[in-house]
Amino acid sequence: MENRTLLQNLRQTPKISTPALVISKLLVVAIPIAEVVIGSLYLKSCPAQKFIPIYLVVMGVFTLSLTLLSCLPCTQEPEDGGQTALSNLCTAWNSIVSLFLFCWFIAGNVWIYSKYQPNYDDPSAAEYCHRTLYLFAFWTTSLVYIVIGGFFVIGCCALICMAMCGKLHGFGYGRHEDV
């Protein structure tokens, strides 16, 4: 068996089937579509923090544009491994939009979590925010942290398993070879 490093194996990622790709894209666009719809429906329904519905609409639109752009052929690498001017432009656009979304997400955290628990009952109150709008924004933002935490735990468990399996089979950092 050929002894290959982890980085060499990561470069040779398997191709995803088209149906799996379509299903994953549909699942990924469901939340941004809901953000645009809910943010638009309740645009003037949160005097406690007027930026919460705007946050949802902008986050949804830019996430949708980033996801839809990833479906275009310009974002796929050519078979020869080279880069075209169009693929460089797509990469630059994806990077800029991703940076914007990261900054916008931080701003949304401040707007949402600073108003935790708004008044849901009295629309004339200064601290009022529509229940559906606020809870949707709160839980979609919290879901990002839950997913990141889940990936972190799974990654740590995978690293521990790889380290244990590597030690059991004589592979890993502790292995000394004659040169």
Your description of this structure?
This protein has five helices and no strands. It has helices spanning about 5-10, 20-40, 50-70, 85-115, 130-170. The relative contact order is 0.11.
Unreliable segments of 5+ consecutive residues = none
* Shape by Cα distribution: globular
Q: What is the percent of helical residues?
A: 55-70%
* Major sheet characteristics: none
Strand-helix topology:
Elements: H1 6-11, H2 18-41, H3 51-69, H4 85-113, H5 131-168
Explain briefly what this protein structure is.
With about 180 residues, this protein is an all-alpha fold. Helices cover about 65% and strands about 0% of the residues. The longest helix is centred in the last third of the chain and has 38 residues, at about 130-170.
Notable characteristics:
single chain, 179 residues, mainly alpha, 5 helices, 65% helix, globular
